[in-house]
Amino acid sequence: MAFSNTLIFWYLQNNRELPWRKTKNPYFVWLSEIMLQQTRVAQGLPYFLKFTEAFPTVFDLAKAEENTVLKLWQGLGYYSRARNLHFTAKHIASELNGEFPDNYKELLQLKGIGDYTASAIASICFNKPNAVVDGNVYRVLSRYFGIKTPINSSAGIKEFKALAQTLIDSKQPGTYNQAIMDFGALHCKPQNPLCHSCPLANSCVALEKKLIKELPIKEKKIKIKHRYFNFLVAVTDKNETIIEERKGKGIWQNLYQFPLLETSRNIDEKEVVASEEFENLFPFESTISLFNTKEIVHKLSHQHLHTRFWIVKTSEVKIKTYNWKIVKEQPVPVLISKFLDNYLSTE
What we know:
- The protein is α+β, with helices and mostly antiparallel strands.
- It is built from 16 helices and 7 strands.
- It has 2 domains: 2-208, Hypothetical protein, domain 2 (Endonuclease III, domain 1), CATH 1.10.340; 225-346, Nucleoside Triphosphate Pyrophosphohydrolase.
- α2 (26-35) packs across α3 (41-54).
């Protein structure tokens, strides 16, 4: 109890004022938790405000077009979160009359909701004693208790979840969960934690044994895959271009892009023009130039995209073309959004 009481006392003095903490409405809590996965609060907050303004209720989100949802999400990355969010909103609106389940087990059945989010909603909105375990919690527990089990191993996931469950304050589980997450984010930080002013310093194993920099432990990272993207940016005599929806289950599903020539290495202009993709798209006379003389390396969690944008000026193409204004209105990856800003500002 001393551990949880200390954290709650710290939280009541140091907690961040965030809009989703001013309510126990599960829609807002759910929205914030999904947005903050893999995303810092400072980056996620403007998106939360935009979403709640555009979709003040789960019914509003359910009625929206997927394109609209993806466009508002643009820049947050991990777009499967947005698609799952939309899918679940439609399910809650149509099948559950707009009511969120009030317990961990049923929340876990909803698409896009895992252990962490189900625990957060159950504890914060419905006062259920389900402990959250996120990156902040892993860090606090591994340091305080001196645990060397890798946090991304199956054994570690089970061990930390079981430990977290024994520590939760059953009388105020939502407050405790938010306390330990804020403590990890603001005090027991990954780099340069504030050990000199830590209320848990006297009993922290990592501080005593000088393990602060070593803990928590992660198993070796997945090998980074390198991919080479050549976007073919058509510019017709009518100053229109080609965009297409990205299909399949890979990155950027249902977002829009310019026609893509993916290769096993960087290629030059001659190789681009000689490719089958180029010949099919541009059967008429055309000129080609490289927009970004230095390749752009777009880093995702497990892959790096070495990217070049090729401007192809042509009299006409055999497929449908679009006005640049329409292109700007479509949901696109950040990589392409930045290109559009740069390219259109030079025109």
